[in-house]
């Protein structure tokens, strides 16, 4: 479960409406609704108010994200920053949050400017997301649209783009990642491909007799003589 789902779970357990919890933590109801929908995230000062109001801690809110330690590792320097942040007054925390948000938005905009400075080329984006999990049913009529991507040697090799659905290929391929796929009917052992297995779309690593999930919390897809398997292409990168 994501942060937004844990947040909603805790609110319902406390028997509070969105409006009630919003009033308690001092934000608009629409703002809190955005937190539960995943459209936005609260700053650390607001998170602390939420935890106090719902009688929960950070371990509850982020337990699923923290479970895979290869995905989220805190350095010694970062731990020191956290200690300093916790020692600040409420005013100090607001000032730190304000500066952090401002710097984050600035660097995000600069990153976008760098990306936009690249020449762009169109690639096909298919509406069916290959599952990094148990599998997504592949309809006969797949929606196709165009997406503009930076013109690089890698993107020029790609025939189409797909969006990853699920967590079984983390940390290499995250839920929501856009992957570049080169059409080919087989991939080598150890390479990642897009497969149709009994009519369902999957992104998996090729192995002898099975398709491997990189995330150890998920099982592999065992193949046998009755399995209907088609390789739709090799994953050559991500955007």
Largest sheet: 10 strands, mixed
What percent of the residues sit in helical stretches (DSSP H or I)?
Answer: 25-40%
Assembly category: single chain
CATH superfamily of the largest domain: Umud Fragment, subunit A
Count of DSSP H/I helices:
9
Labels describing this entry:
239 residues, alpha+beta, 434 Repressor (Amino-terminal Domain), Umud Fragment, subunit A, 10-stranded mixed sheet, 9 helices, 10 strands, 38% helix, DNA binding, Helix-turn-helix domain-containing protein, DNA-binding, LexA-like, Cro/C1-type_HTH
Can you describe this structure?
This is Helix-turn-helix domain-containing protein. Keywords: DNA-binding, Transcription, Transcription regulation. By secondary structure, the protein is α+β, with helices and mostly antiparallel strands. It folds into two domains: 3-114, lambda repressor-like DNA-binding domains (434 Repressor (Amino-terminal Domain), Orthogonal Bundle); 120-238, Umud Fragment, subunit A. 38% of the residues lie in helices and 23% in strands. It is built from nine helices and ten strands. The chain has helices spanning 3-13, 18-25, 29-37, 44-54, 58-61, 63-67, 76-87, 90-116, 153-157; strands spanning 120-126, 136-137, 144-150, 160-163, 178-182, 192-197, 200-207, 210-212, 221-222, 229-238. Strands 1, 2, 3, 4, 5, 6, 7, 8, 9 and 10 form a ten-stranded mixed sheet that branches. A hairpin with an 8-residue loop joins strand 8 (210-212) and strand 9 (221-222). Helix 2 packs across helix 3. The chain is globular. The model is unreliable at 133-141 (pLDDT under 50).
């Amino acid at each position: 479960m994501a942060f937004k789902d844990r947040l909603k779970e805790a609110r319902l357990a406390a028997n509070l409406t969105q409006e009630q919890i919003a009033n308690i933590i001092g934000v608009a109801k629409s703002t809190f609704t955005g937190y539960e929908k995943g459209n936005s995230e609260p700053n650390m000062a607001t998170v602390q108010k939420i935890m106090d109001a719902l009688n929960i801690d950070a371990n509850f809110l982020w337990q699923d994200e923290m479970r895979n330690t290869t995905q989220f590792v805190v350095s010694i320097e970062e731990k020191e920053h956290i200690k300093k942040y916790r020692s600040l007054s409420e005013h100090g925390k607001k000032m730190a949050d304000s500066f952090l948000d401002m710097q984050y938005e600035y660097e995000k905009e600069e990153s976008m400017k760098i990306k936009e400075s690249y020449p762009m080329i169109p690639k096909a984006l298919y509406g069916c997301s290959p599952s990094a999990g148990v599998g997504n049913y592949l309809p006969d009529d797949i929606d196709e649209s165009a997406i503009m991507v930076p013109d690089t040697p890698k993107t020029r090799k790609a025939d189409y783009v797909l969006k990853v659905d699920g967590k079984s290929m983390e940390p290499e391929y995250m839920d929501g990642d856009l992957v570049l796929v080169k059409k080919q009917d087989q991939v080598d052992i150890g390479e990642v491909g897009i497969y149709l297995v009994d009519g369902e779309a999957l992104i998996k690593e090729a192995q002898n007799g099975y398709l491997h999930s990189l995330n150890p919390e998920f099982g592999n897809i065992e193949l046998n003589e009755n399995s209907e398997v088609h390789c739709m292409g090799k994953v050559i990168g991500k955007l």
